[in-house]
Amino acid sequence: MKLQDKLIELRKEKNWSQEDLAEKLDVSRQAISRWENGTALPDAQNILRISKLFDVTADYLLNDDHEGDMLASADETQTEEVNPPIKKEKPLYLYLIPAICIITLIACVIITVITLNKEPPHPVLNSVRENEIAPTCAAEGSYDEVIYCAECDEEICRTTKSIAKLAHTLSESVTENEIAPTCTAEGSYDEVVYCQECDEELLRTHRSTEMISHKYQNRKCVACGKAQPSEGLLYMSNGDGTCCVDIGDCTDENIVIPDYSPSGDRVTKIRTRAFAGHNNLISVQIPETVQVIGEGAFEQCKNLESVNLPSKITIIYSYTFSGCEKLKGVEIPAGVYHIGEEAFADCVSFESIVIPASVTKIGAFAFRDFSDCDGAIIFEIYDGWELHDPTGAFVDIVDFSNGIPADPVMYIALMYSEYVWIRHQ
Ligand SMILES: [Zn+2]
Ligand SMILES: [Zn+2]
Ligand SMILES: [Zn+2]
User: Fold this and answer.
1) Is the N or C terminus of the chain more exposed, i.e. has fewer CB atoms within 10 Å?
2) Rounded to the nearest whole angstrom, what is the distance from the C-alpha of residue 84 to the centroid of ligand 3?
3) 114-128, 244-258, 284-298: which range is least confident on average?
4) In CATH, what class is 1-87?
5) Which CATH superfamily is domain 229-425 in?
6) Are 35 and 69 in contact (CB under 8 A)?
7) Ligand 1 centre and the CA of 125: distance in Å?
8) pLDDT (tens digit, 9 = 90+) per residue, 284-304?
């Protein structure tokens, strides 16, 4: 490098103008200009000044072979203070430009990486079902709905969806909890329908079975002991599910009246004079369903020995047992309040009869010729009885002693008179 170039370089490194340098060296700007364009050379004194000013050796300035090396290798005799190795202070822009370039490059790389990581949209999507589990009637099924890219096969999205349960399959109905009917009680069973697939109980219906009929042997049911109803009896329906019974064509000596007629009517009444005058009758069984025994129902049944009165009877009508010479042991139910005229007249076989506390009226001749009188009629309540004549007029107060009217006249009146007995409560 020639001196003129070195001068320019050194001056520019300091960022000085030709004028700045001229001022520092105390020369004219034109002198600097001539040095730098090579039309003149600085004299020895100015060489020294220049070398001091720029901190370089004179040798460096004058020797053209000292290319970039600023160390004055030939000038080893000089002290290091005079000729230290020259460190050229690089201008700031020399650092800034590469730095900016590097930063820009890194930014470009980062942006590129980010851009590459952002997947481009997949052009065509395919939806398929996977992992399908079929539903049953007991459990829901399920499947995965998966969306793939048709081009790259990448899984884009996976959703698990459920499939509704199947309907149950009904089996034939089966019978469970069966209770066999008897002649006294209905039976029952459960009709159950299960699912053929999962065995779940789907339907249960409780059903009853009709009572079976009695099994009679010797006129009695072998299962429940009930007496076999007589055949030939006549049933007259009341049209409301009840009926009235009459002897009809029955020729039994021991008549059993059923609680229900063969057509299903409840037997609630024995018709007026139903069995009257049937001398072959020995016993009659009346069911508890009967509430009314009509007037004279058993009148003049000369051989009738036993009959029962159901507990719902409230009136023993006139002549009911009149003339039943062999009858004994009839028990008057507790609810009876009226014993009719001649109801038990001429029942000479009775040993005794109890008049319950509920009775408030006894008709004329109700117990005419009743047994042999003494102690045969027992009153549950003694007090309050009066005698009235057939017109209803008061006759006398009955005085009881030990349940028997003390006055024989009164007692005879009960047995034989047309007087009516009334008890005031
Ligand atoms: Zn794709
Ligand atoms: Zn099922
Ligand atoms: Zn039975």
Assistant:
1) C
2) 145
3) 114-128
4) mainly alpha
5) Ribonuclease Inhibitor (3.80.10.10)
6) no
7) 8
8) 999 999 999 999 999 999 999
